Amino acid sequence: MFYRVRTNQYKDFLSGFKTWDQKSHAKQWLLFPENIGNLLSIDETSLSNGELYTILTNKACKGKKGSILAIIAGTKTSDVIVVLKKTALKRRNLVTEITLDMAANMGLIAKNCFPNAIQVTDRFHVQKLALEALQEIRIKHRWQAIDSENNSIEQAKETKIKYTPTTLHNGDTIKQLLARSRHILYKNKSKWTENQNERAKFLFELYPDIEKAYGLAQELRNVFEKTTDKIYGISRLAKWHEKVNQSGFKSFNTISRTIQNPYQTILNYFDNRSTNMSAESFNAKIKAFRSQFRGVRNIEFFLFRLTNICLNFATPQVLDLIPKKPYSTT
Predict the structure, then answer these.
(1) Percent of the chain as helix, strand, coil, to the nearest 5
(2) pTM for the full model?
(3) Which of 30, 139, 154, 219 is the most buried (most CB within 10 A)?
């Protein structure tokens, strides 16, 4: 009861929430035209119950005050464009570059609202597709190993022979090897531990296709990490596409076709090596802010606190103004 009264006092009298100029439409959209900058990021995140919001941030502010340009409910292109166009075209024309993921709606929003901005597709989203394709191959083999083990156990029961699974020299069974190799395949070989090197050796010996797919995923990563020239980047990507075509992996061929559509915006990465990591980092901070207050009960008030504090919740003076629910001692 005391906590509820304290929270209501803060919200209704101390915080300034009642007189907030954006309160009437906060649940649908928030817009701060004064925070616009030359370099923007656009992404989507969930605030409460899986409901998505489109968020535009100013990269120059690095997640601090002045970072938020707009927070708009939903991801529907027309709804987002209507809100962003409330900002004067003169201001929007100041944007020279905007980073985004591979979603088509994000590209349409950027094109319609920021006509002078160069679009840069986040390279990490491209790499993520390759890693997911690699994991798909591993998971396929894992299900086959589980099915094979189940068949062996059933046969052993019928013949009344005790079933003993094949164990590798590192102590893994085949099923365990495939399950425990998940994190290895996300990492570069140079970052493997001694145990991971041994596990990868057994995995690649038993499943050469996983080794081949791992090589393709790492080659795509190296295109972005080790290429500084755009022309050289185009050449290396073309060679990667050719290797994918020759590999015979359906999932990798699907990726190859998928990245053909935003090909130019992917190549724009090599101009300034810009990524959407600032937006992803901002989203992570929002989630941390949300968990600190144990969820979102009132979206408008949550957004009010977010936009005012703007994620500087490490400052003791700010935290002292925000009531927190004490942990139960019972």
Answers:
(1) 60, 10, 30
(2) 0.82
(3) 30
